[in-house]
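[audit] Reproducing an earlier prediction to check determinism. Same input, same settings, fresh worker. If the tokens differ from the archived copy the diff job will pick it up downstream; this log only records the rerun itself.
[audit] input (486 residues):
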Amino acid sequence: MNERVGFARWQMRGLLLFVLAFANLNDIWSPDVLPNALFAWTVVNEGDLDYDEFVFRPAERDPLAAGAVAGTPLTNKLDSEAYFFRACGESTATEPPQATRSPGGPPAPGPNDRVCSIFPPGTAFLAFPFFAPFVLAGADPLNLGVLVRVGHVAAATIEVIATLLLWSLMRRFVSPRWALALVLLYFFGTSVRTIASQALWQHAGVHLAIAFALWLVLSTRPVALWRELASGVALGFGSVVRQTTGVLVPFLPAARIPATVLAFVGAAIGVAPLLVYNAIAFGNPLEQGYGTKPFDTSPLIGLYGLLLSPSRGFFVHEPYMLFAFATVVLLKPGRDFLELRLLSLVYAWAATAILYSTYAEWWGGRVFGPRFLDDLAPALFALLAWGIGHGLLARWPARVAFWICAAWSLLIFQAAAFVYDQDTWDLNPTNINFDPSRLLDWSDPQWLFVLRTLPEGGARVIVAAGLSALALLFLLRVESVLPSRR
């Protein structure tokens, strides 16, 4: 089904998707993206991996507060006890931290400890080329505008590349029109535009790693062994971004011994930067920034929360994904290795869901939508594309049901793209990180608050919707969906 598309057209597709990542005109970010942005400064200017030069210590907190009362501006440095920092090694802290920290995980740094990020470094690695020119130009590392804006550019670029890879992959299974429709659903009907492309969280890097791995090996033609190895490298590096990406490594080869061996060898190569980073930052290659996070949630509660809860449920926010799982009935793994791989992706998704269902913070913090399970969106869209190409939506009732479900997802995710703010519903009346029962309350779902807030966006939302519509219309013209005037 695939046809050759010129490089110029791919460039135009990427440019328009990039524009769409900014056309929502809404700053969506949180302080925990700052270590990924500051990484370039500490590496280039200091030659190390700690963030000591960017933080104030507990002993400085009271003088700073007193100065603020007296009219002296507070420092723009970061709190060394913030939840996204930890000690580089064992913490020597003897007093409870004054800053709020997440459940479990490593303790706050002591007063004299070197300060490191809790996050795996993959996103910081990917963002490094975007920030390096600003570092070399002498930009202020604590200029929040630079950190947020350049971080947005980096996240959007990474996500756009992942989207283009997924587009190319899906075109192997479906017509050009269906491939375009699914790409737009991926971009607008998941957390891609709302969260992943907006700031330096881990989603974009995971999407890139998974999309590249799938692009390498999901093919109707025989797959060369170097592609099996390279897919393992991609997933291994995905684990440098978020460790749970590695769950896909044993599943993607679909139990074929040569492919499995090469995938694991590749994954070992891909994950090596994480081991080196851990050894330098923490003194132990097997130590990791999160420390020992508890996985003690009841799986029943966790699975309900991940799949069906009103404010994090995967099938509540993306009900059209039920059709991706319906594809399973069309797969005949005994007949075709590709179909066996696709079935294995379902197993990988299930294994990831079960793992996260036991995680102490299964909801993924203050965010909109199914944060953790949306990491595997490229895999489900590949499965969905194959199913559509093999008659999944051949009957009109199935197509109508699919697009009704998709319309719901498009509505709530785009409303969030325009007006979502982490400091509103997520914190009031209580902080969801300390009262996650709110995420299970059907009387006050997050998406309903976002929809109610949409009119309050006023002129900004109208302008953002207009810019988004123009970019989308231009993309449809490029794809010959709309007739061109000559």
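[audit] rerun output stored. Observation attached for the diff report: The chain has 18 helices and four strands.
[audit] end
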